[in-house]
Amino acid sequence: MPAKAHSEIHGREIRTVKQCPPFVDAMSHGFMILLPCDVTVRSGVFAWDWVIPEPSTEGHPRSPLSFHVAEQLAGAPFANGLAAVKFNSFWTIELEEGWSLFAMHPVNRNELPFRLLTGVVDSDRFYDAGINFPAIWTDPHFSGVLPKGTPIAQCFPVPRAAPDVIFEYFDGTHNTAYEKTVAEVLANPGVYRKHFRVKRPRSAPESA
User: Fold this and answer.
1) What does the pLDDT look like over 163-202, one tens digit per residue?
2) H-type alpha helices, the chain
């Protein structure tokens, strides 16, 4: 994705969403569940060549995906008459007490030929088995390979406790701050990134 592109309306190069911190931060928020192997799709048939040892744990999946029959989606607003793809999990996820796992389609990845169904799992209690991720196959004409490492689910912890929400009118201080901030944003590029955005650390998984 380029950082700049020519705009016919502006008559010059302008910044693209690649330079928009909220756009980029949303795409990297939390962690991704990735496809563990190449999956080939031809004429609606899914195939893979992935040789792994017999799992030592009974009931553990060996295939990267399975399916939900179309009838399980009957009446759902996203039902399209096709079976849903179910991406199998090869991870268990445990969170701190009071936190749930929010799983959704990878943010801003509309080019993927599927759409993950959003779900919330209480992973402070359910963590001894893997979480599977169902998805609607949205591109019936797709023919090709979903490569190993394709993001299939974006996950992040959310607190179950409801937040306290306060609604109030602007007072003089709020009004002044609003006008000042808007004027700065309109006058100069990168105001949010330079003065408001919190830099995200690069996280690495901890070894037990």
Assistant:
1) 999 999 999 999 999 999 999 999 988 899 899 999 887 6
2) 21-27, 172-187, 191-195
133 and 33 in contact (C-beta within 8 Å)? yes
**Do 182 and 119 belong together in one domain?**
no
Domain identity same for 121 and 140: yes
Tokens, residue 61 = 């999946």
- Which two three-digit tokens encode residue 105? 């389609």
pTM greater than the 0.90 cutoff = no
**Which domain range does residue 102 map to?**
11-48+60-162
Number of domains in the chain: 2
Token pair belonging to 175: 């009004």
The pLDDT tens digits for 74-119 are 999 999 988 999 999 899 999 999 999 999 999 999 999 999 999 9
108 falls within a domain: yes
In a domain, 133, yes or no: yes
Distance, in Å, from the CA atom of 90 to the CA atom of 53, rounded to the nearest integer, reads 13
